[in-house]
Inverse folding.
């Protein structure tokens, strides 16, 4: 059994979640690996297509693989929100153990078709596939929660059942009020636990929660312990921790010529944030 399958199985059995933490550079990747080592837990390191374009495919993938190789933690390389089937297949060929195909912006039939094609390719190589169903709207910071929820297309239980059955996907990212990013002062919309309960009754594959940043801790815990969420994705809070440390340094008026002096502070801040999230997702395990 592959490492990611073992990690998912253990999370299901022990009723906790592991994190997927997104990265696009050296320091964030090191911070994720260090946090997982300190806490003695597995973690997924997520990269997006934009991160791969920014850093270059091989430079970023090889950087992460190098850090994973030297780490004592169980780490899995994952493609987050893969939209281009060609890039997804390239990731599979390059040794990713887990990929996400996000064709959620298409209508159901097309989402099924695109997802199934990826699943067929991935499963031949033992790679786990996560897919998404439902639509998260583009959120403008000034938008009220009411407006966000009006534009959101939450995952429909009937469609979800058909989707899982026709695609053979391994895990499902559903839309239950979750959004990407953090919104203040109103806070992110509430998760729809009623809907999550209905989905849980109909679907037996593990659920993934996207948009982990800004979701109240009690809601995250409840989703994990009562509704079987096995994996929570975090990106924005990592970026905020990283940039916060750099801004604080700049505001302090110190001058350095060695970028490592500043970037190592950002790395420490991200490690602290990832450790905090790992604590939360373990739910007393
Ligand atoms: O795919 C990544 C996650 O869903 C990140 O969401 O930026 O709200 O943490 P977030
Ligand atoms: Zn996401």
């Amino acid at each position: 059994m592959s490492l990611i399958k073992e990690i998912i199985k253990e999370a299901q059995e022990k009723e906790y979640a592991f994190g997927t933490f997104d990265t696009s550079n050296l320091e964030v990747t090191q911070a994720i690996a260090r946090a997982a080592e300190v806490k003695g837990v597995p973690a997924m390191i997520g990269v997006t297509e934009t991160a791969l374009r920014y850093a270059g495919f091989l430079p970023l993938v090889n950087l992460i693989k190098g850090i994973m190789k030297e780490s004592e933690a169980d780490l899995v390389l994952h493609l987050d929100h893969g939209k281009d089937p060609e890039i997804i297949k390239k990731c599979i060929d390059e040794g990713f153990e887990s990929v996400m195909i996000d064709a959620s912006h298409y209508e159901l039939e097309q989402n099924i078709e695109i997802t199934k094609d990826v699943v067929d390719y991935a499963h031949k190589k033992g790679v786990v596939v996560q897919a998404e169903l439902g639509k998260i709207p583009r959120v403008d910071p000034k938008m009220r929660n009411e407006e966000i929820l009006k534009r959101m297309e939450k995952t429909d239980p009937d469609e979800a059942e058909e989707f899982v059955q026709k695609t053979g996907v391994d895990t499902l990212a559903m839309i239950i009020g979750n959004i990407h990013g953090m919104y203040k002062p109103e806070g992110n919309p509430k998760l729809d636990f009623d809907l999550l309960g209905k989905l849980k009754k109909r679907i037996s594959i593990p659920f993934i929660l996207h948009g982990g940043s800004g979701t109240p801790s009690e809601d995250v815990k409840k989703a994990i312990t009562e509704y079987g969420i096995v994996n929570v994705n975090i990106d924005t809070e990592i970026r905020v921790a990283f940039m916060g440390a750099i801004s604080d340094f700049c505001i302090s008026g110190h001058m350095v010529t060695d970028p490592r002096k500043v970037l190592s502070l950002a790395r420490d801040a991200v490690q602290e944030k990832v450790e905090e999230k790992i604590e939360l997702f373990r739910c007393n395990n």
Observations:
- Residues 81, 180, 210-211, 233 surround zinc ion (ligand 2) (CB under 6 Å).
